[in-house]
Specification:
By secondary structure, this protein is an alpha+beta fold. It folds into two domains: about 50 residues, Orthogonal Bundle (Arc Repressor Mutant, subunit A), CATH 1.10.10; about 80 residues, 2-Layer Sandwich (Alpha-Beta Plaits), CATH 3.30.70. About 35% of the residues lie in helices and about 20% in strands. The chain is built from five helices and four strands. A four-stranded antiparallel sheet has the order 2-3-1-4. The radius of gyration is 20 Å and the shape is elongated. The two termini are about 30 Å apart.
């Protein structure tokens, strides 16, 4: 999917910020907050969805409440960067439900994975049975989070990212 910058006006930013903080807020409540009619709010939200600014809605679940006591960051380096090895790695990781995020990096490490794990035995199983057997994996380095200082899904909307016209 290709992304491009979308011009947002001040009202769009208010709507996006409100939805980031509570995606279950009603159109009527949003309309009251930004001084527009519910149909106008609905039209703006549809436009924000269609342009890819809003790309989905989700319930945020506490990982600890559902048994994932460990949050790990796994650095992976590949032996070679042939298109076949890179695609094989990406495909396999994309299908691992424990992997919350996977980022390709520039530098000594090729990929950084954010992974939820139940316990140490689960971590060992994940590393030995899921990650290291992937063809082309050369090195794996794992770090465990002791304390989660900040975790958010709210993006700050840059001040210069909108037009004043509304």
């Amino acid at each position: 999917m290709e992304y491009y910058s979308v011009e947002l006006d001040a009202v769009d930013i208010e709507i996006v910020n409100a939805l980031q903080n509570d995606s279950r807020v009603s159109n009527a409540e949003l309309a009251r907050r930004v001084n527009l009619s519910p149909p106008a709010i609905h039209a703006r939200i549809r436009r924000l969805e269609e342009t890819g600014v809003i790309c989905g809605y989700a319930a945020l679940i506490s990982r600890e409440a559902v048994g994932y006591d460990m949050l790990c960051f796994i650095q992976v380096s590949l032996q070679t960067h042939s298109p076949e090895k890179v695609q094989a790695f990406r495909s396999q990781v994309a299908n691992m439900p424990e992997v919350l995020e996977c980022h390709q990096l520039i530098g000594d490490i090729d990929y950084l994975l954010k992974v939820v794990i139940v316990n140490k035995a689960d971590l060992q199983r994940f590393l030995m049975e899921r990650i290291t057997p992937i063809p082309g994996v050369a090195r794996v380095k794992t770090s465990m989070a002791l304390t989660e200082i900040k975790s958010t899904t709210v993006l700050p909307i840059p001040n210069g990212h909108y037009s004043e016209e509304a």
